[in-house]
Amino acid sequence: MRKIVLKTMPDFDYKSLLRSIIATPGPRDGGMALDQVRKAVKILDRLEAADGHLLLEEADWQFMKTRVEGASYTLADKRIVEFADDVIQAPEVNVAEATALPEAAQG
Fold first, then answer.
1. What DSSP line would sit under 49-97, residue for residue?
2. pTM (predicted TM-score)
């Protein structure tokens, strides 16, 4: 599994940006095939349920990573670079760590 911390900054929210990137095909994509729609919906459901961090199976993280790398951004901003790096370099966590994350996030 991969863990992405859903950071919130003034005028910049990881959850909202991920929602937009996953739900909308890129300008070069011209649309999404049904299997991509299924993957996107699965990730969007997990994203909506996420509170503070998002845990994704490797295949789902790969899909998200590809979408983040291929997205077109409308401005040059350090927060976008940080966001992309956080998604692309999301750390692997094992199942035991994943179940312990809520307590760890509070400390």
1. H-SSEEEE-HHHHHHHHHHHHHPPPSS--HHHHHHHHHHHTPPB--HHH
2. 0.83
Q: Domain spans of the chain?
A: 2-106
- The answer to whether 56 and 86 have CB atoms below 8 angstroms apart is no
Number of H helices, E strands in the chain: 5, 4
pLDDT tens sequence across 40-51: 999 999 999 999
- DSSP letter assigned to residue 102: H
* Category of 91 on φ-ψ map: left (φ > 0), alpha (ψ -120 to 50) or beta: beta
Average confidence (pLDDT) over 62-83: 94
